[in-house]
Design goal:
337 residues, 6-stranded mixed beta sheet, 42% helix, globular
């Protein structure tokens, strides 16, 4: 199974290490040997139709900043679209950070791969939040798979759980803590009476928050994940324009104290019922959604079994890469059938 990786940052490099360490296991358990035939980053590509040495690729990336700097296999200035259209492969793994304003560059990469009739696995939320219904339709039209387990929940299989474990049991609504950064900030504010600025700086120092945290603290990341859940799990077409969004910037010490008196926590909650919305809410300490740290959780209200909650780690290089691996195995199984 030949694959192209577009985007070789934290997730891409984590995936490379996982594929190297699990090479024998994948062959024994699933009967296939995944070959990465091309890597693409911002300045070029690294290509070997016979399969790249991933240890070498990671070393080159870390030493020089780009896989294109490899002296033998590097291709300076070669863009993702050219690689997708010219290098023979069964699947494209789209792992670039993309802009929520227009879904780029990931949206163009995914469209190019689908038009080339290549299966697509992505961990990028922005293209799906912008254009998920059309991308799903394009994949179906070209008779290829579009997989995106890593886009919601990182290493916690929220999408697979919801899609596969409630057959015949209608999901009526859902509520979730879908952003580990804001959950960490609100947890620290609650535990130590710290102001938001201090909790945010702590999150940044630990690597939980970006230098520009607005995507997280303004609720956009949570909203993007809600759109994916809305389309894929609830079967209702939507985009991020349909989501009412309020982040955590207005949460005050007085709000936290009020919640504490009610034996509750304040959490940034994404919910889908008659509407799609993101907003800070008081959650009772005894509720399954009242989780701390960087954890994610989603509670599904179902027709037959009531409320069912899944909890686990959210984003992170290894966690998201593990979800991408799950999708790789799933694509392989479909190819085998």
């Amino acid at each position: 199974m030949r694959m192209i990786i577009v985007g070789f940052g934290t997730v891409g490099q984590s995936l490379a290490r996982i594929l190297q360490s699990k090479e024998e296991q994948l062959l024994i358990e699933f009967g296939f040997h995944p070959r990465i035939v091309a890597l693409v980053d911002r300045t070029g590509a690294m290509i070997d139709p016979g399969g790249l040495d991933l240890n070498r690729a990671v070393t080159v990336k870390q030493k020089t900043g780009s896989v294109a700097q490899d002296t033998k296999l590097g291709r300076q200035g070669m863009g993702a679209k050219e690689v997708i259209e010219s290098v023979e492969a069964e699947a494209v793994l789209e792992l670039t950070p993309s802009n929520i304003a227009d879904g780029e560059p990931g949206l163009s990469h995914i469209k190019a791969a689908l038009r080339s009739r290549r299966h697509v696995i992505t961990a990028s939320k922005a293209p799906l939040a912008i254009a998920m219904p059309s991308l799903v339709e394009m994949a179906s039209y070209n008779n290829v798979l579009l997989k995106f387990s890593g886009s919601v929940g990182g290493g916690t299989p929220i999408l697979d759980f919801a899609k596969k474990c409630f057959s015949g049991n209608k999901i009526e609504s859902l509520r979730g803590i879908l952003n580990g950064t804001t959950n960490y900030i609100l947890t620290r504010m609650m535990e130590s009476n710290a102001p938001m600025d201090a909790a945010l700086k702590e999150a940044q120092a630990l690597g939980y928050a970006e230098a520009d945290p607005s995507y997280d603290v303004d609720g956009v990341d949570t909203a993007s994940k809600l759109v994916i859940l809305m389309n894929w799990v609830m079967g209702r077409e939507s985009s991020i324009k349909d989501v009412e969004i309020e982040g955590i910037r207005k949460v005050t010490p007085q709000d936290l104290e009020q919640a504490r008196r009610k034996n509750s926590h304040i959490k940034l909650v994404g919910s889908i019922d008659d509407e799609i919305r993101v907003q800070p809410e008081q959650i009772p300490r005894t509720h399954p959604l009242c989780i701390g740290g960087i954890l994610n959780a989603v509670s599904f209200k179902t027709e037959l079994t009531g409320e069912v909650t899944i909890v686990g780690k959210g984003g992170g290089g290894v966690e998201t890469a593990s979800a991408v691996l799950r999708d790789i195995v799933d694509v392989r199984r479909n190819l085998a059938r």
